[in-house]
Amino acid sequence: MDCALGYLKAVFLGHSPEKLSAFSVIESSWMPKGWILKLQGLNTLELARAWVGTKIFALREALKPPQAGEYYICDLVGCQVYDANTERPIGQISGIEAAEQDRWYVSTPQGTLVVPANQRFIVRVDYEQKRVWVKNIEDLKP
């Protein structure tokens, strides 16, 4: 899926969803070290540097729907995770590491399970019901 930063017209910056500042996106470009956004109102390097380290948020309705087999992190975090073979609950997705090979972090009573997001481990995702089924759990160590 194309990164939303390539098409969003507005973003919100802040450290948490409770305290955000809105900005119109004038221009966005992918660079070797990541995205560069030109935002209305941040016309100097000093103004832009004041926002370094903050998170970027967007309105859900401004995002394109994910394609089959793709998910937004906000849809996965909090999902209950089940063993696909036994239907036994394992834990809850507590975080996602989005990289070339995504990793899903599952909080369990025994510790955090790191699940590579691929067909070897992920069987089914129902993000509307907040449920994920995984297999080959014995190959993963908390």
- In the CATH hierarchy, the third-tier topology of the largest domain is known as SH3 type barrels
Widest sheet, order of strands: 8-7-6-5-10-9
What would CATH call the homologous superfamily of the largest domain?
PRC-barrel domain
DSSP strand (E) fraction? 35-45%
Mean pLDDT: 91
The main pleated sheet reads as: 6 strands, mixed
Question: What is the CA-based Rg, rounded?
Answer: 18 Å
pLDDT < 50 runs, ≥5 residues: none
Total strand count, please?
A: 10
Q: Which overall shape is indicated by the principal axes computed on the Cα atoms?
A: elongated
CATH class of the largest domain: Mainly Beta
Distance between the termini: 30 Å
Number of domains: 2
**What is the H-and-E element order?**
EEEHEHEEEEEE
Indicate the percent of residues in helices: under 10%
